Amino acid sequence: MDDSPLDQLATLLRTLRAQRGLSVEGLRLRSGLGRTTVSQALNGTRVPSEATVVALAGALKTDLGPLLALRRQACPEPDTGTRSEEATLGGLSFEERYRRFVAEVHGRLTVVGLDLSRPDRSGWSLDAAYLSLELAHDSERSWAADEGPGAALVVRRAEQALAGRRRVLLKGLAGSGKTTLLQWLAVAAASDTLPQELADLQRRVPFVLPLRSLVRRGCLPGPEGFVAATAAALAASQPAGWVDSVLTGRGLLLIDGVDEVPVEQRQSARDWLDGLLAAYPDLRVYVTTRPSAVPEGWLAHKGFTELTVRPMTAADTSVFIGRWHTAARRNTDSPEEQAHLGELEVALRTAVRAQRDLAQLSTTPLMCALICALHRERRGHLPHGRMELYAAALSMLLVRRDHERGIAVPEGIRLTEQQSMRLLQRLAYWLIRNGQTEMDRSTALALLADALPAMPSVAEQGDADQVLRHLIGRTGLLRTPAAGTVDFVHRTFQDYLGAQAAIEGMDLPLLVNHAHDDQWEDVIRMAVAHARPQEAAALLTGLVHRGDREESHRARLHLLAAASLHYATEVDTETRELVGGRAEAWLPPRSPEEADALAALGPGVLDLLPRTAHGLESDEAGAVIRTAAKIGGDQAYELLRHVAPTLPEIDLRSDFDLGEGWGNFDAHEYAQDLLSPRLVRSPLSGITVRTPEQLDALSLLPPLRQVTFRGSFTARDIARHLSPERTEEVKIYEGEALDHIRFVRDLTALRHLALAGCAQITGLDDLAGLPLPQLCLVQTPALFRFGTLTELPGLTDLELFTALPWKDLTELPVHDDLTKLVFGATVSVSLRGLSRFRNLQTLVVNQPLTAEDWEEVSSLPGLTTLFLGDALAHAPVLPNITTLSAYCETAELSIDVIPDRFPNLTSLSLGHRMGSPIDLTPLVVMPGLHVAVNVPHAVGVDKFLPGKVTLHPRPRTPLRPAGARNP
Prior knowledge:
40% of the residues lie in helices and 12% in strands.
């Protein structure tokens, strides 16, 4: 039987790939498509979209015609003569119709500036456009993280980062791609095209709930109102009880924009979500927000993991530029313009690599799209700086695209740039003042109608409805996300225009009074940029003096003023000294959280950081490095060059070291200037390699003691950069490209090996007989052969952060002489059989322990160190334990039982995911105890002798500077 057209298409694609010498990953990168899309096309598991075929043909440098012909044969048009489309739809179940609706509605992205002459072409297929960004799980304060103890900033691609996580709070800055990620999840779930990593979401039914729209309509909907709120066209056909049935076992909630909910309503939104989770405990839920909108651990009481969208890497930016220009070429029929777009693509890739300031601006999809559009519009010339970029983009979108293309009076309305700006400012400022990100069309019409009498040259061209239709149809800044609703295409433009309106309206007191609200954070900074010198000074001074008066907002206001200072074109010396003096009380940062908060405020804070590590504690030195590394750019690089030589000579065991900080810089320069000199003087705590550029830069460094690989690296890539005599620790994460680990046999000094996400490593046969003492396994493939653990005769420390095939430890295939055993948060196994490990000294377990589990623990004679991720209430008396760590996600820690249950304790570490204050008073009766507390506040510290209690982060007691005056 002949192959089907779909089989022939897949065979042809595979043949072309082999002829071009491309790996699947190489084809994916060249085409800009997702892994799943490329895999399905090569395997013939489903008919690829036309856009996918075009992208693959371009990547394979082959004639498009035969590929499209086979695709058309594989996907023939429906026989309209025998069955109408209406009848076809009528034969579908409601769920199938709903899935199609979701895939259609969320299957396209609107991209700023994609086609300036045709607003209707400003979108592209999600299938071709989706870019898998990196997500970070910050587990520094918790050994209970899924990724393993000691993991610092665990960074993975979205598919890997989300794998196995039932509930996620996704944080990201404006334009970072949070909403796009939810769209992709919705479409992939609805169309059954999820990648293998997210197989646990297969066949789940997605509900995309934009909070900005739902809150504006009043009460948040119950389950029965989800379809009406998000798919109104299908609401009348919804079967009774359908949503309840779906949510009970197959629901996927994608909740977008907590930061777009007014502050006073966020608690209600959380209560609403709590109620849904209580009613439907099996729900998979992903929620997005800006980082500053909610405190850390905001949803931890419901088991949410917090992930943060990372800035795009240089490789991501290059892929995005390629996809943007590919989409732009598809949107024009002119061969000359298509050729010109190809030249612009090459030129922009070169410019982004060569110019650090441009590379820093292009680290989010929104900013990268703006840069692509401006680069095309200005024929290769770009403005400098963020505010200049916004101003140029607005000019481009509002007027120049129509004027330069001879579109004189579209829709019968012609507005100057200033007229358009005034009207849009009015809409933006109303949204900001009212804590909204969208408005009813009737509200927009009323605001425009109120403005028209003062703009007679506009009023004589048409009424408010005509003007609004013009602004929506021609500016590229407004859109109608739903019938009767108007919003800005992106929040950044709303903030920019609203800030301009606030300055022109002399509303400085209003800005100061709202500065504590995270929704006003970008507005404040942009207002300082828009302001004249005296206005900027008044606004900055107002922020400082309000911070002096209000202790609860003091740190935020003082640091916001310092960060905003960078945006001011001109400010007098007195104001600069006032702002800088207040900010110094909060500097240098002392924790990863403080470092991240500072980095989010922008490059302006670099001027406030110390340029030497002399006099800094290790936590401060690490936090300064982290802050500068996260900001990136030339100024940050120069600061690191000053700080690096002054770091302590000993191994720096801080929260963040130089080896983690090179993601935002040129890898070769960073290796030569910062890492190599540091390694010559004293060892780093480790180096993390994420990109091919960083991998190549390893050749510039002395032999490394510890290396972490986070990327698609082969065994050859990894092995050629390791030293058999010096390398003691190797961690391999995201090891999809790793097909063997035989190179480990050559590493005679190796003591610790970690393997995570290594889909092709299904056993440890390659290590048979090696005296490897420490092994960590994270997210092993489904067919992993754990029996090969017995091939490691010298294994003493075993860490497991992966699903196990046994109910208890009686079947754990390791030798009985283990001294350390670690079970991650995702491991659920009975501890029955633990008692056979008579030499066990350290045990890490995150799951709740039963009475039988505790009996096994208490039977271990040599156990002295215990790490628990559960409440202590049911612990028996354990006199051998001298070191205890207790980290609690939701329940109380039950500290009062510690003196009786752990009478010989000398070291105690306590943490609570909610960050709630911990009362240490019950521990005062243990005079030999040293306590480390991983929350910002603790009660009873004053009752201990000095040095007996360590708080992380170390508390600050900033004093109001002498002579500070109230305005």
